[in-house]
Amino acid sequence: MESRRTKVILASVVAVFVFGVVMALNRGERSRDLVLSIEPINPSSDITVHVGGAVEEPGLYSLPRGSRVADALDLAILLENADPSGLQLARVLEDEQSIIVAEEPVDPVSSDRPSETSSDESTSSLVDLNTASESELEQLPGIGPALASRIIERRNLEGPFQSVDELSEVSGISDRMVDDLRGLVSVNR
Q1: Is 15 contained in some domain?
Q2: What pLDDT, on a 0 to 100 scale, did the predictor assign at position 71?
């Protein structure tokens, strides 16, 4: 009798084990069938970028996805004095990207003045951002007709410059250009 009882218990254990294996296999097969796929609802085929600086037509441009920086510059039309060497022309554009084209630096005018000047002389030789004409601004390195015009336009629209740092608010003038101009310009209020 004990042998029969052992056989029944053993058969029950085997049945539970087989049932567990079958359930695990079924569960594994079901989970393999589940695939989660997330896709955009309406993927746009265009992106929008801003092009500014030394270009004829600064503004927003819509281009097909996969377009490059050079494609955006072609649409905005580079000015003669544009210096795109600081840009990665082959870079693929991203939506909402801003591209600012610098102007070629103008060689500083050499002078026969002695290198040491009094503080009065150096102050008077600085270009005043609040009173300078377009032609005076164009004498500064990196400032061509387009940027000179934008500096005057900013001055007319928003009032006199309070500091040289405000030059960075002018489209096409980078923080680096402001640093380069810092010893050449002044802000007399």
Answers
A1: yes
A2: 94
Q: Tell me how long the chain is.
A: 189
Residue 153 is part of a domain; what is its CATH number? 1.10.150.320
Asked, for residue 111, whether it belongs to a domain, the answer is: no
131 and 177 in a single domain? The answer is: yes
**Structural domain of residue 34, as residue ranges?**
1-38
Q: Among candidates 72, 142, 159, which has minimal Cα distance to 103?
A: 142
CA atoms of 94 and 47, how far apart (whole Å): 7
Return the number of other C-beta atoms located less than 10 Å from residue 175's C-beta. 10
Long-range Cβ contact pairs of 75-82 (< 8 A, separation 24 or more)? 75/51, 76/51, 76/101, 78/54, 79/54, 79/55, 79/103, 79/144, 79/146, 81/54, 81/144, 81/145, 81/146, 82/53, 82/54, 82/55
What does the pLDDT read at residue 41?
Answer: 60
Q: What is the CATH number of the domain that holds 51?
A: 3.10.20
The 10s digit of each residue's pLDDT in 83-119 is: 888 888 999 999 989 888 888 765 545 444 444 444 4
Cα dihedral: 64, 69, 71, 75 (round 10):
100
The tally of domains found in the chain comes to 3
pTM over 0.85: no
CA distance 102 to 184: 18
